[in-house]
Each structure stands twice: as structure tokens, then as C-alpha cells.
Amino acid sequence: MRFQDKVALITAAASGIGRATADIMAREGAIVIAVDNNEERLDRTVAALRETGGRAHRRLCNALDEADVTGTVGSVLQEFGAIDVLVNAVGGSTVIPKPGAPVEELSFADWQKLIDFNLSGTFLFTHAVVPAMKERRRGAIVNLASIAGRGLSISSSSAYAAAKGGIIAFTRKLAFELGPYGITINAIAPSRTLTERIRPRWEQQSPEDQQAEIERTPLRRVAEPADQAKVICFLASDDAAFVTGVTIDVTGGN
Question: Binning pLDDT at 50, 70 and 90, where does residue 127 land?
């Protein structure tokens, strides 16, 4: 039970990689604080975690609103006394109409939206949680980057690549700031993962295009959310207590 009695705050916990992470941590003894801006999905998630014996609590929050984030973190600290693990899972490319638009087709508004959606929530929750972790001189933070942040995704826009590259740099820089306080901070860089938002786009591709992508992947399949969540949980656990500032590519070998 790697997370026995640890308080784990997970953003975007009601779907996708965040939900898969919440499932694992709840099974392994964590007190899961599920944060999301979709109340219906959040209620279903918390109910499902509790039905299987997990300890789960909900926080409805807009991760891009500073006052909302500050209030959410404050309420968790007041109720539970600590936050041992922070998973920043808010992000993605599908918040604009053409997620793979070339640079000349990106509007400035779309650029700003992708940068904000992928960077601001990670900053705000980290900013709010770090003081309490510093005071206790321990904690683990895991961020979600993307293989696009390595410049290795031909289907992603430059805005998304820039945002996820920012997550990688943010993670590396904070390792130096937080390490002296016993806090680790790491990230994962997923390839295409069949979350609720991405699966419909995958299913719209022709069988030939799907097969071509599978054959480009050494492990010969496309990632599921649990594939990413397992690596997040490793980085958040004491198994990775001497790992910080690292971004692990979770891509099946691409």
C-alpha cells in the first residue's frame, strides 16, 4: 500500500489520466481529493471510488482561477492537515477547434488558450501547495507534460508543444527549488492516450492509419489512461524518493 493514509490531491480527476490515477491511489490506501470543474463527472468519480472501498472527497474547482485554487487548497489543508501528493493532470490540446493547426492557422486567442490551459493550472496548484509541503519538509508533485513538449509530435500544434515544453522546464527548475525541502517534482510525457476526449478522434481515423501508428510503436499498441497513471503513481510514491526533476516519456517506445 504505497499511499496508505497519504492525502493525494489530483486535478482533472473525473476523467482520463487523472481518473485512472485516482483509481490506483485509492486502491493503495490514499485519501484522494478529486478536483474537477465538471460536477456531474466528479460526483460519479467519488461515488465509484467509495464503492470500491476507497477514501475519496470532492472539490469542485476551476484550476485556472487563482482564488478558486487558493480556496480549494486551503480547505483541504484545513480539513486534512496536509497534502502529501499533488498530481497536476489538467491540460490537453482539444480545447481549441483545430488542435493540430499549423502556426499560420493558429489565432492568437487559440495560442493563449492552449498555453493557459496547459500551464496556468499546474502553476496555480503548485504555487498554492508548496508552502505547506515546505513546512512539513516532504511531498511529491507530478505534472503532465506530453511527447509534444519534446517536439516529437507531428499531429500537435506549436502552441501545445510550447505549453508542454514549458511543463518540462517548470518541473526541472522546481526540482532545484524544492529539493532542499525534501519535495520531489517530476513529470510524465505521454504519447497519444485513449482518454474520453481522445478516443473519438482515434476512432474517426481509418483502420489503415490506426494500424500505421500502432506499427510505429515498438510495443505495438496505443496507450490507455492506466498506462500513464501507473508511472505517475511510481513518481508520487516512496519508490521514487530519490528521483526529481525528471520527465519520463510514456510512449510505448516511440
Answer: very high
pLDDT digits over 211-226, tens only? 888 888 889 998 899 9
Catalytic residues: 160
Task: Report the interhelical angle of 66-80 vs 108-136 (nearest 10°).
Answer: 20
Nearest to 14 by CA among 47, 42, 49, 46: 42
Q: Half-sphere exposure (CA, 13 Å, Cβ side) for 100?
A: 7
Q: How many angstroms separate the CA atoms of 53 and 21, rounded?
A: 16
Residues sharing a CB contact under 8 Å with residue 25, sequence separation 6 or more, in sequence order = 3, 8, 10, 32, 85, 233, 236
pLDDT at 40: 96
How confident is the model at residue 29, as a pLDDT?
97
